[in-house]
Design brief:
Length: 158
């Protein structure tokens, strides 16, 4: 795991989203989040970025799931591995909600997929996200990037 706060936040976010999926919790629950932070000893300087990322991911889930499924080439979202699904949801939400460079989001998502998924997960996530990014229309809601905040409200984006 990287020493970068945003990378650490993404790693914890994937774990939190996996846990939410396992518990069928598809909305942001402050009490669930606080319990996770305490139980997993999330570093204090990562909590703000972690909260922002998981909240955005869960808030955009219903809108983004059809976008992801449209780019998975005949795969239903429910058939994907939980980790792959969580990485894709998180990356798409980050692209839309935060002023993170596309290259950073893509690289981080692929690395998380490789670390937590199977041997094909990195390539799969890369292909799906690349298709979404190239289509571009699914990211139009993100605007031109000027009005979005950096992940976690930090001045340094990555």
């Amino acid at each position: 795991m990287s020493d970068n706060r945003n990378s650490i936040a993404r790693d914890f976010a994937l774990q939190f989203l996996y846990q939410c999926e396992s518990e069928k919790l598809f909305y942001f629950s402050p009490s669930h989040f606080d319990t996770f932070v305490a139980n997993f000893h999330v570093p204090h300087d990562v909590i703000q970025a972690l909260r922002a990322l998981v909240r955005a991911t869960l808030d955009k889930r219903d809108d983004n799931d059809p976008v992801i499924e449209a780019h998975t080439k005949n795969w239903k979202l429910t058939r994907l591995a939980v980790t792959d699904r969580a990485v894709l949801r998180m990356a798409l939400a980050e692209l839309q909600a935060f002023n993170t460079p596309v290259k950073v989001v893509l690289n981080e998502a692929v690395e998380l997929a490789k670390r937590y998924g199977n041997e094909q997960s990195g390539a799969f996530v890369n292909g799906v996200l690349d298709g979404i990014i190239k289509a571009g229309k699914d990211l139009e809601s993100a605007g031109d990037g000027n009005e979005r905040e950096p992940l976690g409200g930090q001045s340094k984006r990555y």
